[in-house]
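## retry 2 of 3
previous attempt timed out at serialization; input unchanged, resubmitting
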Amino acid sequence: MEYHLIDTYSKRDSLLHRLDPRTKIIVFLGLIIMIVLTPPKQFITFGQYGLLILGLVILSRIQVWFYISRALLVMPFVLMIVIFVPFLKEGQTAFRIDFWFIHAQVTHEGLIVCWNALVKSVSSVLLITLLVATTPFNDILHGLTHLRIPRVLITMVSFMYRYLFVLLDETERMQHARLSRWFGGYIRRQIKVIGNMIGLLFIRSYERSERIYASMLARGFDGSIRRIDNLKFRAADAVFAAVIVALLTIIWETYNL
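## retry succeeded, writing output
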């Protein structure tokens, strides 16, 4: 069984797809840092960031709904963190809620904190999704290697990406086996069965990792993942980086005004 949760659109042809992975990693990381460091009350600046991200999405030639769906995945986690902030943050009252036994007030400061968390988290998710959607995951790891990211970290991420889908296959087989033998029963019994499945999956994963590691050592693995092809920094990468830096400079100058 194959899964295409990450590399669904990474093999397409567009300006962003053809760029060097190192260029995209540095540029998108710089954008995320700029967005995170922007004060929450600079609404015009966030609007300019949004237009810049939209332009990058258009350059990727991938459906906008794909990015929206990825951004929506993180929204429940963000909302769980900030949903109560407008009610608990002290400050000037924006409006009150009086409904039955609920009596609460929403402050301007709380709304600003909520806006700050939402806009920055969604923007960061969109940029990370844009990077992953336009770059094969192995190329991202290759680019991180050339950027001198610790080799151990890259190796761990590489194996996690490779064998996550193997574990998903194993989980589906166990689930099918459970359903084929299930003729009903109490919820308590089903919870016990699921607990046994989780324990069995852990044991199988551990044993598989031991076998894989022994096989890799037998084939001369020394902790580094080598590739035949080399990354090339082209003129398009320099132009793309220069344009993004120029746009960020314009946004920064507008913010200072």
